[in-house]
Amino acid sequence: MKPVYTSKCLNAIHQIGLIGPVLFIMTTLLLTGCESMDTVARIGTAVGVATGTIDQAQAESIQKSAKAVARSFQDFTPEQEYYIGRTVGAVIVNKYKPYHNLAATRYINLIGQTLSRASDLPETFGGYHFLILDSDEINAFATSGGFIFITRGLLRCCRDEDAVAAVLAHEIGHVQSRHGLQAIKKSRVTAALTTLAVEGTKTFSGQNLADLVSTFEGSITDITTTLINNGYSREFEQQADQAAVTILQRVGYDPNGLVEMLKIMQDRLRPGGLDFAKTHPSPVIRMADIQKSIGPYRAMANPGARQQRFSESLGGI
Amino acid sequence: MNRCKNALAVAMVISLAATVAAAVNLMSIQIKKGQLRTTPSFLGKIVAELNYAEQVAVLEKTEAWIKVRSSAKNAEGWLHSSALTSKKIILKPGAADVAQAASSSELALAGKGFNEQVEGEFKTKNPQLDYAWINQMEQMVVSQNQIEQFLIDGKLSPKGGIK
Predict the structure, then answer these.
(1) What is the DSSP annotation of A39-56?
(2) ipTM greater than 0.85, yes or no?
(3) How many domains does chain B have?
(4) Which residue, among B14, B128, B142, would best test binding to A if mutated, counting the most A CBs under 10 Å from its CB?
């Protein structure tokens, strides 16, 4: 027998039919990442307008806010971060030149890669790697994805392994919080992700490739200018110092190593220098911030256990 | 009327449950190589190595670690959550995948955006920039055994994260 639908029943179907898509859109929005929020919102609002549950103005507002969320540095995948990090790293290593000392390089990779596993971002696309730069400047750089550089000048501010660990943990803190990507101008992030939304294949061609390369170049310049010339905000440096304290404690290093290193750095930084003197808050400010969480400086308990390997690897730095 | 309502409500619940199940149960490796370990710790024994984009079934979660099963490797083990994404990653996307990815939150395309090709173009435009040391840095990999020995020799006792 053919089913007979009463008008009440049809009305109920209509009501559920309206609630259904809205519920589904809301659930989908909650379940999805930022990348496709824009698309989801466009489809969702179109359904909403068509079924009369929302008006055109509301639809536009949803689309606008979804766009703002979608075009964020967080939409870069670990693979894209890795390619940004490789080129930023290439710019740094070409400007400063590497320090050719296998034992020292191996030693800082042992410390650094051990620390990275205790960070909140232990797994990056290509892993963490550390290199010493042949420079007297007091400087260090961390690029997206985990390429980390430290100068001989900064290593000379370290009297023991705990201090070296503190310097490397601070740089891992920048990677973990993705500070490098946040140095990219927002308009460029929007441009990059718009091109990606239009064409997402492995092989780009023609104008899309040219646009993407130009955005890539711009992004690299944004990051290297921040790292080398302007420095991050005090807030980002505080975050990196705080991350360093946590990472050091998780591995079993004494975070007073960071304070000890900063004391030496304070004596050695020259006013007007183009290194940490220019790009970082003063060691005095950093020490005060760190000591809010770890308390007043106290001499380290047992750095002696690690002193021999420190001296053997970095004694002549 | 109630029967209509109920039937539609059940259909909606099933549809939503299927969406939730798909989002929760399958994850993909989002790094070059992911190591499956016997315990939720970087000091856990490695039982299998998984490649970029390989899909795994989620069995159990802790705060930072996820226990998964790889059918391809016929192995179970723990991965840190930063090695995984809930998206399905297409390694060699075709035109249909691109169209689908544009309207789906559950797909990611490998090599999308800033990739080897873009780096290649950048190198052509900046021939003075030498990547040799970056490539060399990537070869500097410390093994799990070396880390364990390094911790012991240095009298370091991890209290979290790595442990």
Answers:
(1) HHHHHHHHHHHHTTSS-H
(2) no
(3) 1
(4) B142
